[in-house]
Structure formats: C-alpha cells, structure tokens
Amino acid sequence: MSNFSLFKLPEAPKFLDESLTPASQEIGKTLGNIFYAVFSVVNYPIEKLRIKQVENLKKYEQDIKEELYGIPEDKLIDPPLNIVGPALEASKFYIEKEDLRKMFAKLISSSMNVDLTNYSHPSFIEIIKQFDSVEAQMIKFISERSFLPYIELIHSATGNDLVSMPIIEPYTKVEGVAADYSTISASIKNLQRLGLIHLVPISMSVDKPFIEELINDEAFNDYRNLKEGFGEENFALENIGFKIKTGNILLTSYGLRFVKVCL
Q: Top-level CATH class of 140-257?
C-alpha cells in the first residue's frame, strides 16, 4: 500500500451564498471552481500532516469568505485569473501560517473589489512568499503609523561619513513581536529589498523618547561599555569614530499599495 494519502475536496466550496443576487452567486461559484481546481488533489506523505492541512484549508476558506462578505455586493467583480490563480497556487505552502494565509485571502478578495482591483498586482504574491511571520507583523505595525524610528551604529573616519561601516545595522522595536536584534534588523533589510519601505535618515523631535529606549536596548550594550570606558571626549580609535545614526522607516508608494490590498 502506498504511504501517500490522497486528499480530495468533496465539492467546490461556495464563497457567496443564496441570499445574494444571481450575479454575485456566479462570481462566488467561479472563485469556488478555481479554488477546487487548485486544491482538489493534494498528496501528503504523512497522515498527521494531511489532517493538519485539511484543518488549515478550512480556515483558509473561512478567511476568504469573511473578506468577500466585507465587499459591497455592487462592488464585486469576477476573480482575475492572473492574480487569483497564482495566489491560490502559491498559498498551498503557506496556509499553516495564519498571518500569511490572511494576506493571501485579502489579496484575493481585493482583486475582486472594483474599488481595489487597480491597486492589486501579481507581484504581491511573490512578496508574501518572501515573508516570514516577523515581517508580516512588522509591515502591519509600520502601516499603522506615519513613520517608525530606527537606530544604527556606524564607525567612520572621523568627520567623514562617506567612509563608514555599520556595526549595528538599522534596528527598531515592534510592539507584539518577540524577536531579537538580528531578526528585526534582517527583517528591515528584507522589507527594504522588496521595495516596501524607505529608510529615511531624518529624525523628528517626537522620536526622542523612542530613540532613547532603543539605545538602552541590549543590542547596544557593547557600544555603551566602550563609550564609558573611553570617555566621551576620547571615544575614537586611530581616527575612527563611533556614531549613532537615527532615522525613520516609511512605506514606499509600492508598499502603500501592498498594504491597501493585502492587510
């Protein structure tokens, strides 16, 4: 007997119910058929994994339904295949991660909303695929603010910022995210690489309490110890100075579009 379990959906799910107009029901049926085509036959080598994924699939269906029912009926349009098809296909491997699963559900529903379809973009599928949970939480946290302060430590030839090297790369704190400096910093770099955020080296007066909190973080322990050891006036080694740089994280125009349709 094969050790592979075959999972089949019993029928195409209904995403929009009988209470809506025939046109809306037809839109829901179209999406259900695409969903069925993507998920109807999936092979899982382990029974435990199969059961887990069936439960995740039910949650995914519910996530999409909740998003669709938030769209006014007169705003519903047929699912665009260039977004919905690849999004469902890609999401097979991410539905166990709630925050990523919900992003895919929101992207799919946004592409079916006439007010948001122009903001949707197929590249957003690849963006979500390159997220982990920390980055998903970070982009949400940033989107809820006008800006998010960050801090970094560089050393450079004294008086010459053009010859410099980061010692502590851009770092910030994100409420609700239990991650260390290296994880947060790597996530900032990834969001920047994906074109979702700018790092703007301009501080604002309202940043000061937050910046002081960041400087007191354990990531800067070595910096504080060096500064105390050398003294403020001698805090340089062979014409190499250490300098705290601050700035703010802002969404790019591309990032604003992503947030609008995926969060």
A: alpha beta
